[in-house]
């Protein structure tokens, strides 16, 4: 199979979808890999590394799309890429279709085969291709939230972990999934007081078992959320409904109950966000302020740490890439129920039921 690895063109996205090690494994099995020049540079991989692994380096985005039967990416195609996608071409990447009707309609019109990382699902309900980036994003949510609590950035001026004689900051985490637990773990490590919300009592019991005593759990409902936001310093949105839009757990009117300088980090922004006031931002311009509340809603948080993120992502995506290359997408999906759940669009036909629920297509 002919496999293309383009440069990620989304704002400040520095990850790459296949490492030289992946290229080596593909080319030794007689597959052809086309890598756009400097695609891996920000993640620490030179063109020469790819050449030595057996890839052919191409000079432009257009050339990669033109030659490849399968495009392997990190983030969803953006508008400048829509016209490059061909009928029957396999696009394997994070899509987050539920949050973008324009993307959905463009991919339907292209009649491509779209397989989404974020909806590949194992038998136990886990999301193997989303988990490593959720781990990175969860840890970064606390890291970024702590930074934006600083006064020069119009935060409260609070050191999240406090110091002797001064109480630590209060962190509210909405969701006890992978993102939420990683965010809570980082906040707890800094010494903050953490409250983590969820509607799944099994998850809350698990949190109680693994976390230190200054991490407490609470059942998630509007009454409890309204109560806790009044004293929270950092609020992290970590809610996920696979393939669907996130529920709006914090509404616009709730902002008036928060103290000025409160920071909200919405990790669910890729799925529409779990705050009503969420709008997508970039690493270049990451925050905005509404009612004196700082919002951080970067859509590709792991892209800021591309070396770590690229290796973590490709560790889990590459076996699927290889399987598709070896068998073709139909046989690969038919033989692997996990991959089958990632199939979102097939030659213009919407396969993923969550897209049908959320989008007018």
TrEMBL record:
Pfam families: AlaDh_PNT_C, AlaDh_PNT_N. NAD(+) binds at residues 134, 198, 203, 220, 239-240, 267-270, 279, 298-301. Keywords: NAD, Nucleotide-binding, Oxidoreductase. The keyword Nucleotide-binding applies. GO terms for molecular function: alanine dehydrogenase activity; nucleotide binding. SMART domains: AlaDh_PNT_C, AlaDh_PNT_N. InterPro entries: Ala_DH, Ala_DH/PNT_CS2, AlaDH/PNT_N, AlaDH/PNT_NAD(H)-bd, NAD(P)-bd_dom_sf. PROSITE patterns: ALADH_PNT_2. GO terms for biological process: L-alanine catabolic process. Coiled coil: none annotated. Residues 4-137 form the Alanine dehydrogenase/pyridine nucleotide transhydrogenase N-terminal domain. The active site is at 96 (proton donor/acceptor), 270 (proton donor/acceptor). Its EC number is 1.4.1.1. It catalyses: L-alanine + NAD(+) + H2O = pyruvate + NH4(+) + NADH + H(+). Substrate binds at residues 15, 75. One of its GO terms (cellular component) is plasma membrane. Residues 149-297 form the Alanine dehydrogenase/pyridine nucleotide transhydrogenase NAD(H)-binding domain. The keyword Cytoplasm does not apply. Belongs to the AlaDH/PNT family. This is Alanine dehydrogenase. It comes from Psychroflexus torquis (strain ATCC 700755 / CIP 106069 / ACAM 623).
